[in-house]
Amino acid sequence: MSPVIKKLLFGTAGIPKSTPVPSTLAAIERIAVLKLDCLEVEFVQGVRMGAETAEKIKEKAAALNIGLSAHAPYFINLNASEQGKRLLSRERLLSSARQAELCGVKCVVFHAGYYGKDTPEKAYKTIKTEMEEILSILKSQKNPVSLRIETMGKLSQFGSLDEVLFLCRELEGLLPCLDFSHILARKGKANSYVQFQRILSKVQKKLGQSALKNLHIHISGVEYNNKGEMKHLNLRDSDLHYEDLIRALKDCDAEGMVICESPNLEQDALMLQKLYWSHTVKTTGK
């Protein structure tokens, strides 16, 4: 009986709770012990890692066959009204990509910003202009790291599914990070097998079949109100139909990384991985 090929990799957003020492190096080892597949390295409070540590992370992940992504600082707002804040945001994203390359990370997830007093259309134009400059700089520096703009959960944040997909279609080198919890929180729907299929079909239609073979996904439970996301929850404490989501991903033959952002991190990541493999075994008969 031949092994089933891993198409979706499952891991945690940052250091698993059960890691003995709170470091990225120890987290990679813990991910391997747990038999998870990947780790999102968190630069969310700033890029403060030295080059020597980055090299060790690259070597450790390669040795243990653990996939790596990264998340840029939260303090990015490419639609800030002050030009200085936009320039700082630009530099934070560039620094994340440079550090990610040293770590052997394939992609960097980021939050694009807020609408502020602008219309969504004006914010889109400003963020597009900023991203064109950032992508141009990375290309000139021959940086291979992909940037992934995340779908966001608050109505005040730039990052509806349509905004993300349109921007990715317009800008070469920009890819989406699909946070299904945020998509649910933003609209209060998109929470069934059929609706998850529609989202994935929209991704395919806008960005091509290749996009479904190179996904980066965030999943957690989520509490939300009429303004969108409030906080993350463990999956079993939320109304997200995560079993339907995993089945939709399996049925569309999706590939890529699934990063769990639940408060319990590895517990929900392992549960999602188990669900995925149960559907895979049923489908293949292996």
Describe the structure.
- The chain is globular.
- By secondary structure, it is α/β, with parallel strands linked by helices.
- The strands form two sheets. An eight-stranded parallel barrel has the order 1-2-3-4-5-6-7-10, surrounded by five helices. Strands 8-9 form a two-stranded antiparallel ribbon.
- It is built from ten helices and ten strands.
- It is about 45% helix and about 20% strand.
- Strand 4, helix 4 (about 120-140) and strand 5 (about 145-150) form a beta-alpha-beta unit.
- The chain has one domain (about 10-285): Divalent-metal-dependent TIM barrel enzymes (TIM Barrel).
Q: Key terms for this structure?
A:
TIM Barrel; 10 strands; 286 residues; 10 helices; alpha/beta; 47% helix
